[in-house]
Every structure is written in C-alpha cells, then in structure tokens.
Amino acid sequence: MKHISIIPLYDATMSSIDSCRQLFSRVNDFMKYQHKPPFYDVEIVGLAKNTMLSNGLYTINVDKTIEQVKKTDIVVLPLLCGDFKKAIHENKAYNNWITGQHRNNAEIVCLCVGSFYLASTGLLDNKKCAVHWAAKNEFKEMFPGIKIIDDTIITDENGIYTCGGGFSYLNLLLYVIEKHLGRDISILASKMFEIDIERKSQNPFMIFIGQKKHGDEIVLQAQEYIENNPTETFTVDAVCDKFSVGRRTFERRFKKCTDNSILEYIQRVKVEYAKKHLEAGKKTINEIIYEAGYNDIDAFRKTFRKITDLSPLEYRKKYMLQ
Asked: Boundaries of each HTH araC/xylS-type domain copy (predicted)?
C-alpha cells in the first residue's frame, strides 16, 4: 500500500485537494470490486490540525501533521491561486519535510501552478516543468534555470510530476494511477469521473501572450509592431529593416528575449488574430486567412494546426460563440 500525503498549501484551491482525495480513494473501491486489497492510504497532511484556505473561506481538518508522518510514498502539492511569491513565503515551513521525503524516495505530484512552490524548494533544479500557459512568463522570470515545457501537459522527471493547465491535473492523476496500477485502472477511473484521458496538450486552450519583461527596448518595439499589425504581410527582413538592425544579430536577440524566432512570433500573432475571428463566426475561414496576411491557405492551415493542434474548422466548431 502506498501512503499519499496531500498537502494543503497556503493559497491552495479546495477543489484540487478534494479531487485528489476522491480520485485516489475511489481507486481503492475499484480494487475492492476486483477482490484486491486497497492500494492507496490517502491522508491530508498539514502544518496544524486546522488549516485555512482561500483567505479563511474554507477550513480543513487535516488527518495528520507533518510531524506525525515520518515516511510517505507520494506527496501531492495542490493547485495554487493568488500571489505566487507570497504563497512561496507562506509555505516555507513545508520545505524541509517535502525535500526530506523526496530524498527518502517519495514521489512528488505537483498540480498545475503548484509548481511555483515546488520550484522554490530546489526540487525542480535542472529538470523540466510543465506550466500553465498563462503563468509561463511569470514562471520563467522567477525561475530562469528551469526548462519550461508547454507542448505537453505532463512531465515525469524521475518521480517528480508536473502538469500545465488548470484542471489538467486530473490527467496527471490518471497518469500516476496508470504508472502504479496499469492502464486498465486508469481507464476505469477516467470513465467513472468522465475525464478525457487522451488530453495531451495545452495548445488548443492557449492564448498567446508574448514575453515582454526582458529589457531590450528594440525587441519590445518589434513585438508591439507585429502585434499591432496582425493583418500585415511581414517578412523577417522587413521587420529588421524597420528598426535598422542586422538580421542575424537581431534574430538572436529576439529569440533570447521572447523564446520565439521573429517568424514564429509573427505566426503566433496571426494565429491569435484568426482564432478571435473564428470564434466570432461572422466570416468564412478563407476570408479570415486572407485577412491575416496569408495568400497560401494550405500553409496557414499547417501553421494553425502546428500551434493549436486543431485545424481552423475544428477550432471554429469547438469555440465558436453561439
């Protein structure tokens, strides 16, 4: 039996704590139906017997305090909501216990932006981390040495798991259950809780937000120029000429500051423009593509799918306003 310690971090969401407790506990019911012993011993483990969440809106009566749990197998860090720097400070009292449990071979399951706290402990140093697309720039600013992954929703770094995207933590829990008990139990859990087990990416949900906290004024001006003119037909040379900079040097500067090449940035801005018009549903897809500055419809469709994992038609069907 694996002991799970769900940690009610300061600024954690009640829903993520309770979802973990319910999902892992329900797995024990599945095992019982198959005439097998329970697999998880699920407890909420905090600093004190009574822990407040959401500025006192909720109070959790924990099962045990960290002093009472000398050894655990899995530490679950819930989703955070609010000021990440403040949350890191308020949760420092957990640091030694969590890092000590990891040294003692405990797995760490970190839900969405709980990764801000996890990164502060040093356990993500030299590791990959999945981060919610809306928090990516802030995370990079606070933890520049950690490699952010945004093309998948789950990372698995030798027993440290992270996920990107709000309720994608449910997919992470299914992933962990599959590692422990196999695909059949994970699928059963996905059916019982109606979780889309095949969700692998944040891309269909992502809204492009350019990284602008870098201090390079010319790069910032170029970003704003591209963003303010989404229907223009840009070339990389034209952007460089506008700001009187050499292409080779400026491309390096731009990539370093924004994590995108100039061409990628142009493409992302145009895809974001197209997404908004696809959602509105007032124009044909081809009209939107031409307005975005593309004459080659197939080329735009390929770019759109690369960025969103969906075709323009699939995107419209999924998100068009009624």
From this structure: 220-318
CA distance 83 to 256: 27
Question: What integer pLDDT is reported at residue 322 of this predicted model?
Answer: 63
CB hemisphere CA count around 103 (13 angstroms): 9
Q: Are 165 and 154 in contact (CB under 8 A)?
A: no
CB contact set of 304 (below 8 Å; sequence gap of 6+): 271, 274, 310, 311, 312, 315
Give residue 300's identity as a one-letter amino acid code. F
The SS3 assignment for 80 reads strand
What are 14's two structure tokens? Answer: 């009640």
Mean pLDDT of the chain: 92
> Per residue in 147-156, pLDDT tens?
998 777 899 9
- Model pLDDT for residues 137-194, shown as the tens digit of each residue: 899 899 998 999 877 789 999 899 999 877 889 999 999 999 999 999 999 999 999 8
What domains appear along the chain, each with residue ranges and CATH number?
2-202 (3.40.50.880), 217-319 (1.10.10.60)
Q: Which helix (H) or strand (E) holds 99?
A: helix 95-103
Q: Percentage of the chain surpassing pLDDT 90?
A: 77
Q: What is the pLDDT of residues 51-63, one digit of tens each?
A: 878 777 788 999 9
Closest CA to 202 of 111, 131, 119: 131
Distance between CA atoms of residues 215 and 221, nearest Å? 11
Distance (Å, rounded) from C-alpha 155 to C-alpha 200? 11
CA-CA distance, 320 to 322, in Å (whole number)? 6
Q: Which pair of structure tokens corresponds to residue 6?
A: 């769900």
